[in-house]
Amino acid sequence: AGANAWGNTSFDVAVACTADLDADGTTADTEVYSASKTLTKAAPTWQIDNLVAGATCTVTETAWGGATSHSARQEATVAADDTTEVTVTNTFAVGSIQVTKAFTVNGSTPQTGWADQLSQASATVGLTCSREVNGTATSVDVPDGATRTLNAANSFTASYDGLPAGATCQLSETASSPVANAVSYSDDTPVVPSSDTAKVTVT
Asked: How many Cβ atoms from other residues are within 10 Å of residue 116's Cβ?
């Protein structure tokens, strides 16, 4: 679901092949090929020519570009006078963070008399996120912008959608009207769930 947005990274694949060169079943096979290559969405194919027919090759993805899931190690036998294909698949799941603003007066839910005042209230929140890509923490460009305004028109709720699953985020309220004496978060460092929504209340 998120490959278009989050799959523009690099992927390292290692291939190692062995073959029985002496036709002796009592001896170990000989390594006939070993190499690795970095692939990308723009250049996703690696063709290895002149391999020994009958060789057994293992294909292992060693860096999966921040994918949520990736192919396990695979094994293939090289066909004679043909091309043996192995597909390495990376999946990029996405999730959402939903932020809701709640107001209290002296620590309690506002009474009816506050309805008019709260109808004019608003709060501004910002979200920053990072995800791990091949062992490096990488900033996430939050889709549709990191800053959101919560007000009566949107029921004091905003949703950050299309975030990469597994990303760690930091939520902060940057402004409010009326001005808050204090701000608390049900979770100020939410982790983006896979195909689900993490809900955070700012009070």
From this structure: 8
| Structural contact between residues 12 and 63, judged by C-beta atoms closer than 8 angstroms | yes
Residue the block writes with tokens 């723009």: 42
**Ranges of H-type helices in the chain:** 3-6, 115-119
One digit per residue, the tens of pLDDT, for the chain of length 203 reads 799 999 999 999 999 999 999 888 788 999 999 999 999 999 999 999 999 999 999 999 999 999 999 999 999 999 999 999 999 999 999 999 999 998 887 666 666 656 567 788 899 999 999 999 999 999 999 999 999 999 999 999 999 999 999 999 999 999 998 888 889 999 999 999 999 999 999 99
Q: Report the C-alpha gap between 158 and 72 in whole angstroms.
A: 38
* Under 8 Å between Cβ of 167 and 66: no
Give φ, ψ of 117 to 5 degrees. -65, -45
Per the CB < 8 A criterion, the answer to whether 198 and 98 are in contact is yes
Q: Give the H/E segment covering residue 150.
A: strand 147-151
Please, are residues 155 and 168 in contact by the beta-carbon 8 Å criterion?
no
pTM of the complete model: 0.88
Q: Which two tokens stand for residue 15?
A: 């291939």
CB-count exposure of residue 103 (10 Å: 0-12, 13-18, 19+): middle
Tokens for 170?
Answer: 């930091």
Residues shown for the chain: 203
